[in-house]
Amino acid sequence: MSKSLDEKICIVGSGPSGMSAAWYLQKKGYTDITILERLDRVGGKCNTPKFDGKYYEMGAVIALPTYYKSLALMDEAGIEYIHKKIVGNYFDNNTGKSINYFTEDEMREIKVQIAKLQNLIETKYPDIKNPGHEKVHLDLADTFENFCIKNEIPLIPKLWVNPYTGYGYGYFNLVPAAYVLQYLDVPTMMGFINKDFIVWKEGTESIWNQLNAKLNKKVRLCTHIKNIIRKNNKVYVYTDFGMEEYDKIIFSSPLQDLKDYVDTTEDETNLFSKITYMEFYNFACLVENSRNTSAYVPGNMMQSRAGHVVFSYDRTDEGNSIITFNILGDQNEKVTSDMCREYLEEDLELYNIHLKDVVMHKCWRYFPHVNSQQMKHGWYDKVEGLQGQKNTYYAGEIMSFSDIEECVAYSNSLVDRFF
Question: Is this prediction's pTM over 0.85?
């Protein structure tokens, strides 16, 4: 396999995966890297629009000190970040009142179960923090709910659910444990417990704007790809500006969409058709009677409560006038934006918060993943086996997990392995 540093490399997508892949390629000495982005901005689901002079997160919100690979990238690129304590309380979905989430007995027992989980990870599942899910342990391919039952750690889901389902990553009765534990290993979970977070002055999108400024060749925005054909050991990309020829291509864009514009093989089409995702809604709202605290609503973190508020991010203590609310749909796509807006008003009335206006709204195809059956049947082994064929490589959220750290770590691994 040729590794000439003057190869022309195309990256599709300028989210964390595509941007970090370009950074690591540039560090390695590659001189001709083109990133194509269909939107008019970089960052993907790191989306921080400015409203009334302040920045608001409408996608990814925070990082933690355990995000070693992504923080190292930021340090290398001179991107500044801020350590911050974010206070979050728990609220009852029926009464709207603040609740004590664990009893004293549960508090004692959860410490025991956390230690048990940590021991399991260290002794039985040490590969869980490696990028990707190739050769995943079959125990981890089972749902997280079943994994915890089998390992007799029944309180772990009660604690883990808040920064998992509350941030849009699905329901524990459906999601393979490999995803949950790759994102929320014990040290990362302890960061949430200790409320030890990392934020950016101008939001998560600013990370990738600053990284773009450090690239030798800036992201090409507003680029509509009409067709991609891979033949004669080359990759031909057709856009509104004509045809461009590349030696290799990295897809960090949604793989389930490749069939719409790429000459996908039968294997690619079949594998990528198995990808599913969550409908995840963010509402930025102007309200009255703010409680001046971010809030988890654990009682809404199940499919039967899809469409209701699972988490609110309140920064009114910083002088911000807007609160953002997270709402999770279900994988049967039965929840619409209109329904979410209706449930939002019901929820806020319950919490005695008056909704004055929705000033921004996003609906994301969130957390691309495969189900337990596909994972058990080697979906990741099969996709990894395609890496490099037809001069094509796959990165992005689906290849590891949909948070900044896992996307960056996987892109770093991809570049190390193949370039």
Answer: yes
